[in-house]
Amino acid sequence: MDTPFMDALDEKLTAHFPGRVVRKDLVRQTKTGFNVPVYVLEYLLGQYCSSTDPEVIAQGLEYVRETLSRNYVRADESEKIKSLTREAGTHRIIDKVKVRLVETEDKYWAELTNMGVKYVNIGEAVVRQYDKLLAGGIWAIINLRYDASFQHRGQTRPFIIENLKPIQQPSTDFSDLIASRARFTRDEWLDVLVRSIGLEPTHPDFNRRKKLLTLMRLVPMVETNYNLIELGPRGTGKSFVYREISPYAILISGGQTTVAQMFIHLGTGRIGLVGLWDVVAFDEVAGVRFKDPNGIQILKDYMESGSFSRGKEEVPANASIVFNGNIDADIATMLKTSHLFQPLSPHLQDMAFIDRLHFYLPGWDLDKMRPEYLTDHYGFVVDYITEVWRELRKTGYSDAIDRYFSLGSHLNQRDVRAVRKTVSGLIKLLHPDGEFTRDELQEYLELALEGRRRVKEQLKKMGGLEYWAVNFSYLDKETHQETFVAVPEQGGGGLIPPGQPNPGVVFTVGTDRDQGRHAIFRIEVQAMKGRGGTRITGAPSRAMRDAIQTAYTFLRGHSRRMGISKEPNEYDFHVQIVNLMQSKEGSETGVAFFIAMLSALLDKPVLEQLVVLGEMSIHGSLLKVPALAERLQLAMDNGAKRVLIPSENKRDFADIPSDVLDKLQIIFFSDPVNAAFRAMGLE
């Protein structure tokens, strides 16, 4: 067989980890025709093909294929396997086996997934020995016996599991790994881990950031009670590591789940998934919901404390929780019109739930999988490396940051905990010996701050001022220099672009009471010779139509007071409302419409990056702007530099964060005319 080129990393890896590595192209070759998880294949390949000798590899590969052909149960050949077992009396198979307790019979029954047999006799001792049989099932090598005389309650149940062997490493020499890790540089080890999950890190499209983001998918494997979410385009491999790589992770497809399945069954006392697996991953989160209305609350409590309460007792568990989902829209558009948690199911769009997420992995920064991204080089047998990762869950490096850095004032306790857990996880993966440099730690810290800030930035969009503190930073203990960490995709500034707008163009923040949110609108007005009247486009709400009419009436009634030579009743006003954030309504916008009309009539633009707030009556009386802090935050986040505000709101400024006030020029006005002149720089 053809042997791929071995590079220096291959030679180093095979020299220091003999018998624990495998060529990843062999996995892909073998997997064709056998729909089994990667760790099942690599369990076999690791036993028979863990060599650099082409002849040994060829012989081992042939044996693995024969074993799979003879013993692996394909769903379309299940009847054939049943027949073989019946004729021979016993047969060894490779299948996924799960167990359920049938309470009415007071008996455990095993189910062979691919074989399609739901009533297979299994001893209680086996069930007690491998409790994951009761929670999702395990892949195993099974000695299956056929006994036509065996009956249970009048029903013939001829299939009997004599014994089974889970497909996983029995033990791992952790000290040996620690010693061998010292032979590799950090970057070499990073590439080894990327190759171990089947990707080629030397491909030109794989930069350092993409490698680290790929590695973030593994942090829940090594860090207990870690809450990760990844949202991004389809086809980037979001769920692959949880479905294929580890026998200690379970992937739940989107849909309804139950409290009993996740946590504990009150009737039987049987612990659910979080007590039996290291990682519980939800796929297609747009459809995730709990049958029990209290399910989300229990999940939130677990994500916060690492325990759950059902009945009288608090039950601890160590499972990390992962949420995967697809984003179909353009990220820039989502940032401008909604938030980056929009793909979540309505049941999960709960700010208290979102605030418990430790890291938001930006799936849009990773490429869709292509054949050339897959590696033909050596990597760890995943069954071996997952045992290492499981062992690493017993250690912790949450205090590693304190050696060189301290965290900024904007991080609350949840933020600090999230950042520390992320850094700890990356250290475990890349430095299982606990040896790392200051620069390496700094890189992990900045990534951890970015991932947690992404969560907080979206919470700010959803919840307003409650989550205003998002300027995450860290301080160097030696130099006392403070470094702020940004979120690369954070934008929305283009909604209110720099540069002076055309006459008649004004930005404002209106309130959509139905949706309970604020939104930015761009008002565009043209004044043309006519008979006096208004034409409105842009499908405005009733509140906006009323505001336009009020502004127009005031303009006609007070034009002489303003010293305007042009008569408004000799002009037609074409008013267009541009909905920048997909909001249905925009109330409290009357002053902005008045200023836009006057700006168009005078052919005089308003100030650059200005937002106008305030509602008015037909006599010019001003109403206090509600929820001022949230409106200012929204304006600032979307590019505003100046905000025009009624004087009635001066008392509210004690509640405005200093960060917001530092970035905005506040201009007060006492009446609509005063507002218009100040907006156009005439006063």
Percentage of helical residues? 25-40%
The rounded distance between the terminal residues' Cα atoms is 84 Å
Largest sheet: 7 strands, mixed
Tally of individual helices: 24
Weakly predicted, low-confidence segments:
none
Provide structural commentary.
With 683 residues, the chain is α/β, with parallel strands linked by helices. The protein has four domains: 75-166; 171-383, Rossmann fold (3-Layer(aba) Sandwich); 396-484, no CATH class; 493-679, Ribosomal Protein S5, domain 2. The strands form nine sheets. A seven-stranded mixed beta sheet has the order 24-25-23-22-26-29-30. Strands 4-3-2-5-8 form a five-stranded antiparallel beta sheet. A five-stranded parallel beta sheet has the order 10-12-16-9-17. Helix 23 links the parallel strand 29 (642-646) and strand 30 (665-669). It starts with 7 loop residues before the first helix and ends with a helix. 42% of the residues are buried.
Blueprint (SSEs and pairs):
Elements: H1 8-16, E1 21-23, H2 24-31, H3 38-48, H4 54-71, H5 78-88, E2 90-102, E3 107-112, E4 117-121, H6 124-129, E5 138-146, E6 151-152, E7 155-156, E8 159-166, H7 174-181, H8 186-196, H9 208-216, H10 219-222, E9 227-232, H11 240-245, E10 249-252, E11 256-257, H12 259-262, H13 273-276, E12 279-282, E13 289-290, H14 295-305, E14 307-310, E15 313-316, E16 320-326, H15 331-337, H16 351-354, E17 359-362, E18 378-380, H17 382-392, E19 405-407, H18 413-430, H19 438-463, E20 473-476, E21 482-484, E22 505-512, E23 517-529, E24 533-537, H20 542-558, E25 571-579, H21 590-602, E26 610-612, E27 615-616, E28 622-623, H22 628-637, E29 642-646, H23 658-663, E30 665-669, H24 672-679
Parallel strand pairs: 9-16, 9-17, 10-12, 11-13, 12-16, 22-26, 24-25, 26-29, 29-30
Antiparallel strand pairs: 1-18, 2-3, 2-5, 3-4, 5-8, 6-7, 14-15, 19-20, 20-21, 22-23, 23-25, 27-28
Helix pairs in contact: 2-3, 3-4, 8-9, 18-19, 20-21, 21-24
